[in-house]
């Protein structure tokens, strides 16, 4: 039996009145009297199968044991008489989250990378039901209407969106990218407690890649991918209406810099003296470089241009140099002066390592085994504790195996990877859920750079390596909910300082703020249900959010 304080089914004495409170009984306006009018009994909005209230064969005692309760009578005949506990059930959405939460380290690779990549690649072949919102680039006038089918602005707290072009090292998967949005939302719920019924996965369908053009089962648009102004306008129209955060670029940058700072602490080196080589200068690599450059500038008082001189970015053509004309805007900020490398080999990683002698080397290239024995040994010649992060995932795309790096560096290297390993896991899932939680709870329309700095500082402060240099550079994934609380506190405090909050009842006391945050973090547990008047209830209380709710509204709107 759980000993969690919320399982006592008592309202939190300070914050139980909050709309998103998760303690005490839960209001519910659902019945089954209108089941005959719904498109399919499996998605009807009643307490037995609605995702938000679903208890399946384990209804709370207040909904079943007392037959005089207004909900109870309507549940008889729908459920077998024996009540199952959460521990005995076999399938249920709450059970799904509970199982993963209990075994997060073991399940992480199943719900996210690398298994999620296989599901994305086979999306059209295994499609059963919509799990999010599909927005069509050739039907941009309907964006607001399409989103509205999933709820009003006050109904949805958190949206994850992708255009499906760069997914988990497997490239352009187009409309199948909806599943990465789904997976990241699952992580957000697990890692930060954002209510699953108040989230929305979205994919921007910008047509498919050429591989998918010949797939008869493909469910998305059947044209080559749209680029240029039409694409830019499509993305801009979507993101202008929401506070926007890039989990892969900014989230990866935040968690990586937090791990670097912990590594620098162990090695006794200052951030302002550090030299960094980034191998793989796509969006993730440049995002990390951006975060490191900004942190160096903030700590040293240097300009961002001068801070960028401590970073060397390597990509497919080798070291990025100014004369290369096809650089992206992000890459151009880190391109080196041609004169520095005139007459010197710069087409591969090893010669760059030999000349630069970096303290930190990060891999975001998706080029397996790029960190060779020679590269690691060369770096270890000049640095007492080389910091080496092979971050590409899935694991088959790692730049090196951590155990090889350990051996080649004679166990001197400080290592973090992009997935769960027996070393620090430098995964953005440690960062973006907590940032999202803080942004949701403070009700702000903006996410500012200083909030990201506050995030990385809060993550770095919790590094196990600060107490024991032999421990991980970032906290273990099993501690991620605690990390999310600290991140949310940091984000909220920074937002208050910058007067960017619209939620005015945020506690000023630090201890109360933490309790306020925890009270609003959803957990996979059954709460007793209290019947409320349907006319006064929110859409969530009436079961009108999510797939079932969307279909119900469509049914009502359709001609008879």
UniProtKB/TrEMBL annotation:
GO terms for molecular function: malate dehydrogenase (decarboxylating) (NAD+) activity; metal ion binding; NAD binding. Residues 1-67 are annotated as: Disordered. Its cofactor is Mg(2+); Mn(2+). Pfam families: malic, Malic_M. Keywords: Metal-binding, NAD. InterPro entries: Aminoacid_DH-like_N_sf (IPR046346), Malic_N_dom (IPR012301), Malic_N_dom_sf (IPR037062), Malic_NAD-bd (IPR012302), Malic_OxRdtase (IPR001891), NAD(P)-bd_dom_sf (IPR036291). The keyword RNA-binding does not apply. It comes from the Eukaryota. (S)-malate binds at residue 393. Divalent metal cations. Prefers magnesium or manganese. A divalent metal cation binds at residue 248. The gene is MAE1. Residues 249-496 form the Malic enzyme NAD-binding domain. Residues 54-67 have a biased composition (Low complexity). This is NAD-dependent malic enzyme, mitochondrial. Belongs to the malic enzymes family. GO terms for biological process: malate metabolic process.
């Amino acid at each position: 039996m759980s000993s969690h304080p919320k399982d006592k089914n008592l309202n939190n004495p300070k914050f139980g009145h909050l709309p998103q409170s998760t303690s005490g009984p839960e209001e519910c306006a659902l019945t089954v009297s209108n089941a005959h009018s719904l498109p399919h009994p499996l998605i009807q909005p009643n307490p037995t199968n609605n995702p938000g209230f679903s208890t399946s064969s384990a209804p709370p005692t207040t909904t079943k044991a007392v037959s005089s309760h207004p909900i109870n009578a309507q549940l008889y005949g729908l459920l077998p008489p024996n009540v199952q506990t959460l521990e005995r059930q076999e399938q249920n959405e709450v059970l799904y989250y509970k199982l993963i939460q209990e075994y997060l380290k073991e399940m992480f690779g199943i719900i996210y990378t690398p298994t999620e990549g296989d599901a994305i690649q086979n999306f059209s072949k295994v499609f059963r039901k919509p799990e999010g919102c599909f927005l069509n680039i050739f039907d941009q006038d309907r964006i607001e209407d399409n989103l509205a089918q999933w709820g009003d602005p006050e109904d949805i707290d958190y949206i994850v969106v992708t255009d499906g072009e760069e997914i988990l090292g497997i490239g352009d998967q187009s409309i199948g990218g909806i599943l990465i949005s789904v997976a990241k939302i699952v992580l957000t719920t697990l890692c930060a407690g954002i209510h699953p019924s108040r989230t929305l996965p979205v994919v921007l369908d910008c047509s498919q890649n050429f591989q998918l053009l010949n797939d008869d089962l493909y469910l998305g648009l059947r044209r080559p991918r749209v680029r240029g102004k039409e694409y830019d306008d499509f993305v801009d129209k979507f993101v202008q209406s929401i506070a926007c955060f890039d989990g892969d670029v900014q989230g990866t940058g935040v968690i990586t810099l937090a791990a670097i700072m912990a590594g620098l602490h162990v090695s006794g080196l200052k951030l302002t003296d550090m030299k960094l080589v980034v191998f793989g200068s796509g969006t993730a690599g440049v995002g990390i470089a951006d975060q490191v450059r900004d942190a160096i500038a903030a700590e040293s008082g240097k300009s961002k241009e001068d801070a960028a001189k401590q970073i060397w970015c390597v990509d497919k053509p080798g070291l990025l140099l100014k004369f290369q004309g096809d650089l992206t805007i992000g890459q151009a900020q880190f391109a080196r002066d041609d004169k520095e490398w005139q007459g010197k080999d710069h087409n591969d990683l090893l010669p760059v390592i030999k000349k630069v002698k970096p303290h930190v080397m990060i891999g975001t290239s998706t080029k397996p085994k790029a960190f060779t024995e020679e590269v690691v040994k060369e770096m270890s010649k000049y640095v007492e504790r080389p910091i080496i992060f092979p971050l590409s995932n899935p694991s088959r795309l790692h730049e090196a195996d951590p155990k090889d790096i350990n051996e080649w560096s004679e166990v001197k290297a400080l290592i973090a990877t992009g997935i769960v390993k027996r070393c620090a896991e430098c995964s953005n899932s440690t960062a973006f859920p907590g940032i999202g939680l803080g942004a949701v709870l403070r009700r702000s329309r903006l996410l500012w750079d200083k909030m990201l700095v506050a995030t990385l500082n809060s993550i770095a402060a919790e590094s196990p390596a600060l107490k024991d240099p032999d421990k991980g550079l970032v906290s273990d994934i099993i501690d991620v909910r605690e990390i999310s609380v600290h991140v949310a506190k940091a984000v909220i405090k920074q937002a208050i300082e910058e007067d960017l909050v619209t939620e005015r009842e945020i506690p000023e006391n630090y201890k109360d703020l933490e309790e306020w945050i925890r009270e609003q973090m959803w957990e996979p547990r059954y709460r007793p249900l209290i019947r409320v008047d349907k006319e006064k209830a929110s859409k969530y209380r009436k079961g009108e959010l999510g797939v079932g709710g969307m279909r119900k509204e469509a049914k009502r709107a359709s001609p008879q």
